[in-house]
Request: fold
Amino acid sequence: MSDEKNVVQENLDNTAQAEEATQEGAAPKKKVSRKKAIIGAIIAFVAAFGFGFYQWHETPEFCVTICHTPMNQEYLQTLYANPYEPAVDKWGNEVEYAGGMLASIHGNMGKRCMACHTPAIEEQVTEGIEWITGNYYNPLSERDLARLVFYRHAGETEFCLNAGCHNISKTGLTQITADMSRNPHSWHHSEYTCSDCHKAHRASVMVCTQCHDDVEYPMGWISAEEASNLEHQYMSWNEEQFLAAA
Ligand code: HEC
Ligand code: HEC
Ligand code: HEC
Reply:
């Protein structure tokens, strides 16, 4: 950032020099200075624009204005929804309490899209190409944790459990929810992964209800059966194919 300031300062100096030169009317020198001043002005403009762009790039509005246009407002709404009030999910289904969606809880704590979707250049380039060529589904195919971590080269658990986010171990998690009727973090059935239950842009699902009818779950969450009745709940992308092809 200080570099950018320096560039701007330098350009101002250049411009000032050019003006001086013009006033003095020193012919051979003048030409060079003016050229420098123009280039300087362009650099200053690009630097200022670039800096503004960089800041804008970090806002949720950037994500939905630039690329995620087919579903734009839907994702934004899940971020800005009050966790204690009803809301709609990314597909337009009603959610009893927005807090059942991770985006709402995190948005309420001042987190933004990129807090979770930490930029990964490979992913952005791939998605950019998919966007330009129209090679994507609308509604967007849902990403499971495996796909979210793929470009970030992190383990599945580290996506959420890391020093910068939830600084806790899986064992720690087990203890936090130990007093629930069926501890969702008991890892009793190892086939379930975090994203089977925790959903960011739609109501989280207590998958254990599929077989156990004595399961309690938090406000805004839904049962496995309710989840299977959601509109657009299909997953149009085969994750295994994706991982095999990549
Ligand atoms: C709490 C972390 C978190 C935040 C904040 C967040 N996301 Fe997500 N996002 C996820 C997760 C997890 C998924 C995987 C699907 C899901 O859980 O709904 C996802 C999936 C997506 C997808 C892929 C399509 C899909 O439905 O799976 C898009 C697009 C997306 N998010 C956009 C956004 C935008 C835009 C914002 C900001 C307005 C945002 N996300 C904020 C965690 C987050
Ligand atoms: C079977 C469903 C299920 C699975 C699978 C699951 N969770 Fe949870 N998780 C829950 C429920 C239910 C809560 C309690 C939420 C609440 O009280 O709002 C919770 C709470 C949490 C919390 C908040 C704990 C706190 O500080 O209060 C974190 C962090 C978390 N889960 C991370 C994970 C991670 C990481 C994974 C995968 C390794 C995972 N969960 C897998 C259901 C699940
Ligand atoms: C596909 C059906 C099915 C699902 C889904 C399921 N379970 Fe189970 N679960 C069973 C069966 C059957 C048993 C009894 C056999 C056994 O003990 O392995 C059981 C046993 C258990 C036990 C041991 C109970 C005891 O009394 O010893 C726990 C704890 C448990 N499940 C927790 C969960 C949690 C937490 C989830 C959600 C992540 C879940 N189950 C999802 C079928 C399921």
Summary: The two ends are 36 Å apart (CA to CA). Residues 1-30, 235-239 have pLDDT under 50 and may be disordered. The CA atoms of residues 49 and 230 lie 43 Å apart.
